[in-house]
């Protein structure tokens, strides 16, 4: 695939991601994506055969970005505290931004019986996130920057509170102090400082 094709696929995914955040997974059609991207049906189908393919690419891309972000910085020896601050700042912004949340779309996609057992299951996404966080927490503990904590418990706290707030933000107004309080406690648990 050439550079133009890659740019087109990226534009399709960006537009589709906005649609999935707005409407969930079930209510987005290929026609919606054509209208949002100003592509003909043939132009869109040249790149993707279904909304499922597009959604999987979006989720996989988000997972890769997060893994690359952690892994690359750890390989460079960036202090764990700096990485943590950057990630928690991004999480706070995302938790407060209901408009860009894919939580409902993720729930709809992964709770559908036709998608629940494949390689892109919600459990697989959770497992990848948990493994990434485990490597990062161990990195911080080995460097003496994080307190020796129960990593599984901290990972559960991070992942489930993050997704929980993202889901609730789609259903009701969430006070912006809630993400701040949650993330402040995570920082306190890991570093002993707020």
Automatic annotation (TrEMBL):
DNA-binding region as annotated in the record: 29-48
InterPro entries (alphabetical): Homeodomain-like_sf, HTH_TetR, Tet_transcr_reg_TetR-rel_C_sf, YfiR_C
Keywords for the protein's UniProt record, in alphabetical order: DNA-binding, Transcription, Transcription regulation
The UniProt record lists the keyword Transport: no
SUPFAM superfamilies: Homeodomain-like (SSF46689), Tetracyclin repressor-like, C-terminal domain (SSF48498)
Record domain HTH tetR-type: where: 6-66
Single GO MF annotation: DNA binding
Annotated protein name in UniProt: Transcriptional regulator, TetR family
Organism field: Lactonifactor longoviformis DSM 17459
């Amino acid at each position: 695939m050439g550079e133009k094709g890659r740019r087109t696929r990226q534009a399709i995914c960006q537009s589709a991601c906005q649609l999935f955040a707005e409407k969930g997974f079930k209510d987005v059609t290929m026609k919606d994506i054509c209208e949002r991207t100003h592509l003909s049906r043939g132009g869109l189908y040249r790149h993707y055969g279904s909304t499922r393919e597009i959604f999987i690419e979006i989720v996989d891309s988000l997972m890769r970005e997060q893994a690359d972000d952690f892994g690359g910085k750890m390989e460079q020896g960036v202090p764990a505290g700096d990485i943590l601050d950057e990630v928690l700042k991004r999480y706070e912004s995302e938790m407060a931004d209901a408009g860009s949340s894919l939580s409902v779309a993720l729930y709809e996609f992964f709770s559908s019986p036709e998608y629940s057992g494949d390689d892109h299951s919600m459990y697989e996404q959770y497992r990848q996130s948990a493994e990434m966080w485990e490597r990062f927490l161990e990195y911080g503990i080995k460097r003496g920057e994080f307190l020796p904590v129960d990593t599984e418990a901290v990972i559960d706290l991070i992942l489930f509170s993050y997704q929980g707030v993202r889901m609730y933000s789609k259903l009701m107004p969430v006070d912006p102090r809630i993400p701040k309080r949650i993330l402040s406690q995570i920082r306190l648990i890991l570093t002993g400082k707020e």
